[in-house]
Amino acid sequence: MDEVGPIPRCIFNESEYRIHLTAIDKTVKNINATNATDYMGVGSDKIWIAKGVSHKIVKVVRVLNEKRVEVGYNAPVSHSARVKITQRLTNMTPPVDVFNLLLRGYSYLAWVALEQSGTAAFMNPHAVDIIQRNLTELQPEGRSRSRFSVLGNNPRGHPTRSITLKKLSGNPARINLEYGVLYQPAVGNFPLVDALFFMESPRRTLVGLQTTTANAHHTQTSTVKLFKERVASYFNGWEELSRDLSWEIIYVQHADSTPISDWQKCNDSANLTEAENREIAAFWEEKVHQYQVTITAEM
Fold it and tell me: pTM for this structure?
């Protein structure tokens, strides 16, 4: 269902599943510079006008509007399809300004817009220039020295293309870590972050992107541990690569959200030992740098 959407015949029949998955991929590949703006409407309060193909990668969802009246809106048929559409739009040449277009008209499905545009914006050089100037550092108590984000020191080091991190249940082959690539998990419940990329200069850094509409997004030691395990499963030589690797997390928020203004804590987990909790909590406090930015269509 995460791949093809809530279609029973495709979920319970492997042949139908593969046929529909192929159809989704083909539809996404047909997105080009001449029809890209049609696809920007996915998830908005306007009719999606990509004729003849919308039934492959769109579904209708019912939501309550501001007057508490139930209305129908379009959304990508699945999380995987949403990731693929976003990647296609942001990887196109000439580039499409996803940063501005995806945030227009999202009144009731803001979470869809934020997840898509919030991470895709980091592949747009114009958006990155604006974002890095608007980053607010979040510091824990006792840390007196502030530090610019790597994007602030080297905005041209932002990712320029994206790669999907496939489901681990499918036993994907490990890949070589690349700088300048936005890694977007195919699953919607990836631990700790919604997407991540790596920068080589001015220091080797893992940058995690977490989109949220809440005014707080604390995590747990078990989540950090799971994230490390997942990343190690995706990249070749992770144990060596992770040595002396700096960590940054950027909390990306919508204009209607209450901005995160405090350090986001890493709380102990009952599923870990006392020693594990202590080690991961110390890592979080000492090695992780946090920043916040609010995304608006007017930026």
Answer: 0.73
**pLDDT the model gives residue 148:** 94
Cα distance between residue 230 and residue 185, in whole Å: 10
> What pairing do the DSSP bridges indicate for beta strands 219-220 and 266-267?
parallel
| CA separation for the pair 236, 262 (Å, rounded) | 35
Segments making up each domain of the chain, as ranges: 8-113, 121-295
Q: Hey, which residues does 75 pair with through a beta bridge?
A: 59
Question: What are the residues whose beta carbons fall under 8 Å from the beta carbon of 230, sequence distance 6 or more?
Answer: 168, 190, 191
Angle at 184 between CA 51 and CA 48, to 5 degrees: 15
Q: Burial of 127 by CB count in 10 Å (0-12 exposed, 13-18 middle, 19+ buried)?
A: buried
Quick check: bond before 155 cis, omega within 30?
no
Residue 102 reports pLDDT greater than 50: no
pLDDT confidence tier of residue 71, bands split at 50, 70 and 90? confident
Asked, as a colleague might, if the bond just before 202 is cis with ω within 30 of 0, I would say yes
Q: Which helix (H) or strand (E) holds 63?
A: strand 58-64
172: which residues sit within 8 A by CB, 6+ positions away?
166, 234
